[in-house]
Design goal:
InterPro entries: Solute-binding_3/MltF_N (IPR001638), SsuA/THI5 (IPR015168). Belongs to the bacterial solute-binding protein SsuA/TauA family. Helices cover 39% and strands 19% of the residues. The protein has 18 helices and 17 strands. The longest helix has 20 residues. The N terminus is likely disordered.
Amino acid sequence: MTIRYAVPRFIAIAALALVTSTADAETIRVAIGTQDTTINCATGGLLIRELHLLDKYLPHTGKYKDATYDVQWKDFTSGAPMTNEMVAGKLDFGAMADFPGSLNGAAFQKAGRKSIFITVLSGSVDGSGNGIVVPEGSPLHSIADLKGKTISVPFASTSHGMLLRAIKAQGWNPDTDVNIITQAPEVAGSALKANKIDAHADFVPFADLFPYRGIARKIYDGAQSHAPTYHGALVDAAYAQKYPEVVVAYLRAAIEANSLIAQDPEKYSLLIQKTTGIEAPVDYLYHGPLGIQTRDLTWKPEYRKATATAIETLKLLKKTDVDLDVNTFIDDRYIREAFKESGLDYEAALKNYAKQPLIANDALTGKPIRDFNDVTQVWLDNEAKVRNYASPAEAFAALGKIEQSGGKPRAVFVHDHASGLKLFANQAWYVNDSHGAITAFLLKTGADRYAQQVSGSVVDYAAAKTGAAQAVASR
């Protein structure tokens, strides 16, 4: 099969591949490293594997007419060991975040070779996804309370970079004003439970998974740093040059995975839960409509900047001394071709910064929801689809009746009134105003400020639910 590429330099690569590679009658390995529990990599790994999407797109015509494929999958809990296997020639593709991905590029360069970042899978131009949590019963409520405290974080991760930026924004010295220790997420969960650390900074999905499991409370979201972050996929550059059509096939599979989860986020959140053990509401928090991060396969300028920042920060941390050229390390030619072959407009997607939209009717009134600032969602245990409500007051009142009848929610979702950030309702603070409205906030400080503006009172989730039920009863 001859591919006509829109970008001239890609034509040269494809032509070179036709000359230097004889795929006929050969077995082509497609070895893909995944991070299943890092759920933002799902559309570049777990879903492709579980739904057998890659088989649909691997080429079988032209120079690939007689080729067979040896597709291999290997799951990792972090990017570093995946990079080791890619550099060792045991993997062809790998999915990871901006920081470990930059270390991947540096490791290849040190070995006299090259890897390339070929697509974004999911990200946030503001930094959502990374976060800082404290033990559930902690008296700490914001990052300003962390001075002099012990904070653990996976070193050299994207959340480490967020933590350093957040500390800098406070005007603190990270070496003297806080005690930063290295700790993997698996260890941090136990440390939070046992109150052995004051706070923990982590990446997707742990800053939301630990609160969902009731062992922590989020006091800082990466969006407060306004530092872009993303997860994406890399490939060995030599492999991409030899088999450009296979790289495009992988990306077309990722595009379909992205489309499927957009169409039915509840269904595929349950699949992610079944495969990883990460509870479906956490997966939906990220992948569902108005989610914490945007599933975005385009190289927005903010993600290019995030890569440059990652390289600079890793050098500052003395994790690498390699100078990577972001302009050649990021290569968008393959994803552009995958969009084209999938009948999609890459340039339009590149300009689109919107989250996955919510197109829904209010579960109480049946009317279309138009204002999403205070939209509230309820996912019941025995229901396949999430219920949508126009406001927390409306949702909490309905939930009270549901629970009285024996119903049980998997999760309730609200949105921070100031930023729009999607939250678990039991992790938020609320302001009750004199008109009966209930407004959600991530931070107690934000709720306190708003309460002063509207002469309202700040309450927790339990009190907000009780207040909504009483308001309905008094009507």
